[in-house]
Amino acid sequence: MRSSHRVDRSHRVPLSHRVGTLAAVDHHRLRRQVWLKFTLTFCLPLALLTIVSLLTGPLAQTAGAQAPVTEPPSINTGDTAWMLMSAALVLFMTPGLAFFYGGLVRSRNVLNTMMMSLVGMGVVAIIWVFWGYSLSFSVCDLKDGYAQGVESIIGNLNWIFLNGVAHDAPDPIGYGATIPHQVFMIYQMMFAVITVGLVSGAIAERMSFKAFFWFIILWTTFIYCPMAHWVWGKGWLASRGSLDFAGGLVVHVSSGVSALVAAWMLGPRKDWTIKPILPHNVPFVLLGVGILWFGWFGFNAGSALGAGSLAAVAFVATTISASAGGLAWVLIEWLTKAKPTAVGLGSGFVAGLVGITPAAGFVTPMAAIAIGAATSVVCFYAVNLKAKLQFDDSLDTFPIHGVGGTLGAILTGVFATKAVNPAVTHQGLIFGEFYLFFENIFSVIVAYIVAAIGTFLILKVLAFFMELRVKPEIEDEGLDLHQHGEEAYGEELAGELSFSQKLSK
What we know:
By secondary structure, this protein is mainly alpha-helical. The protein has helices spanning about 15-20, 25-65, 75-105, 110-120, 120-135, 180-200, 210-230, 235-240, 250-265, 280-300, 310-335, 340-355, 365-390, 395-415, 435-465, 470-475, 480-485, 500-505; strands at about 140-145, 145.
């Protein structure tokens, strides 16, 4: 007779014994061979980068000096303090995203979902230090302030392993003229960290954590770094006049489109069409929204790269656009469904934040309200259209971030004005100028193509070495225990057996 008392967690049988038996020896040998091949494929380029860095170290400082500033501006302590705070705020957005996504999934998958948001804080940060920052921002061949030749496509390797990235002087190119180079580097790192986490929302509750781990490495290197370089690193889209103040293209469009492709390639969750999949913890969702909004001030206002009037413009625009977005979503939900929801209010806030991101430092407060409200309405209908099309983007990454980022980029081309930011060379459509409007549409198309094709190829490569999706039985029982050996609450839902009890039977 089986004992009914609760399992002593301090003396659990190892997970491998509970889940199933070990695979055959030959199978394990084959897996080791495959992993050896994959590791060598990844490590060889890294080793070459290391050798190049060591051999060219003395030359890197010389190369960095190819764009000298006659009298380097002194570091401004106020700007530095603001940028350090902004970097911390953007980093704080990642735990906020984890709460937001974690609350939207079922309780048996909450840890796995939050892990997918948080793991980038480790993986992407190291990639950024090793080669990501250099590929995104290091250039030598400048003409009229923009990179030339190959460097218009991708940065050089002069700053790999932070070689020549000073802690006591601004960068030699002029990205942040009044802050230490390392401060600019670490601020940009936080953008890369959260961007890949956004992708995880589309493939929640079914993608293998191992596959997602390797996806992060490849996606950051081959999609995020080039996009950041083209728009913010003196690359070819910036030279054409494309405007993206804080990441509408680089962050939201690229992650949203990649999420769409990943969800399509993995297929829907097993029981997605059988029964409704509801959020297991709405307070988690609202907590995540609050943290995201708070951190977004570093995201948008921090992109001014100083504690001045431009930061104030972006701060105000961020606040009122989010407010307009939340209000618009609640009102349209009220009108169409008779009951405004807490998840809807949170989604509206996020949509408003996404929409204003590319425009925050270029538009007036009234334009910010219009952008937030318009983005929220369009994202609302995009979410509903996704449901009608029976497409399982689990947490609406594309309908909110992809669609919201797209609309925000286009509306930047409508409302951007020199009266707010003198750096605007071509004003928006409402001021009678057409160039910026069409240029930002062109940039959106480029981002769609690169993110879609790049994500497809990355997942195809990974599928050659490993299973992208967990087995159906694991999907049924939940990814938390099987992927991580942990439980979020001990019980799936009130009145149900814990995972450990289920497996012990």
